[in-house]
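I keep forgetting this: the sequence line spells out the residues, with the fold written below as integer tokens. I include a record here:
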Amino acid sequence: MSTSETSINIPQLLIVLVLSGLAIRYFFFSRPTTTSPSRSSPRGRAARPEDVEQIASMFPQVGRREIMWDLQRNGGSVAATSERILGPAGLEVPPPSFQPPSLLSTSSLSSSSASAPSSSKDLTQLDLIQRYNLTSKLSQTSPETPSSTKEGWSNNKNERQALLQRRREDMILNARRKLEEEERVRKEKEKA
């Protein structure tokens, strides 16, 4: 072979392939630096009070702090937060360092529009007893309501619904009676 002929050996070929692959990746698949701050800004965006109220009205069992934390983490997506609530894991507990802005403006608007009482004593009275109109049943002296003689499910939808409603009412009334009994015992201990 003559010296004018050059040959490419395997290590040189590998180096050329690696360098060309890195160059293609850098030019075509890298993120521009100008989009990085805008991409991270929605994650750091504070949750809108309207979104928090919307989710809290759909899922009253979930705390507002958890809702605000998840909305802030996912960029304010109500749908994503709703999916996480409905998922098997639920919402994550926010870290102790997360201090959401207060919702005084929205809570004052909702309390004035709903005409809810302002004292904590009155708020405890607006509960399941009043929601399901069980005040007349609460005043009855019998602590246990007679259950139906049939055990199990009926084929009739209306009978099943009535059975479930009776069970719900029984659970609410028993819980209220138990709470009243505990309060009565606590007051007697304080007097003694």
